[in-house]
Amino acid sequence: MGKEIIKKVKYTKGRKEGFQGDCRESKGSNGENSNLRHKVKRETKSALREIRRDAEFIGKMRIKRQMQLDRERREKVKRIFAEASDQQAELNALDRSNKRRKR
């Protein structure tokens, strides 16, 4: 058992010698990471706010378009009813004149 542990230690010791660089992060890079995380969070919030504004704008445009279509439809219906009313008035006038002729 003792030899196996020593061999493992020697093996890991050899691996460390071949490794270059420090695996720990320095305080400077940690602060930089914090700043970058903060910037990402800010940009994400900004993007979400922009998406909400765009959605609101699109909704308003849809409502405007629908109101315009409704307004045009009401005008058409109004015009049709006016024409129908005129035709009915002419028909009533003809009926009255025909009744007078018969008497």
* Total strand segments: 0
- Give the overall average pLDDT: 84
Oligomeric description of these chains:
single chain
Low-confidence stretches: none
Enumerate how many helices there are, as a single number: 2
Assign an overall shape: rod-shaped
- How large is the radius of gyration? 43 Å
The portion of residues assigned to helices is over 70%
Terminus-to-terminus distance: 136 Å
Largest sheet: none
Order of helices and strands: HH
Global structural class: mainly alpha
Strand content: under 5%
Can you give keywords for this protein?
mainly alpha, nucleus
Question: Please, could you describe this protein's structure?
Answer:
The protein is mainly alpha-helical and 103 residues long. 90% of the residues lie in helices and 0% in strands. It contains two helices and no strands. It has helices at 2-18, 27-102. The longest helix is centred in the middle third of the chain and has 76 residues, at 27-102. The termini are far apart. The mean pLDDT is 84.
Outline the secondary-structure elements.
Blueprint: H1 2-18, H2 27-102
InterPro entries: Nop14 (IPR007276)
Pfam families: Nop14 (PF04147)
Region (Disordered): 16-47
Summary of the model, kept short:
The chain is mainly α and 103 residues long. It contains two helices and no strands. The N and C termini lie far apart (136 Å).
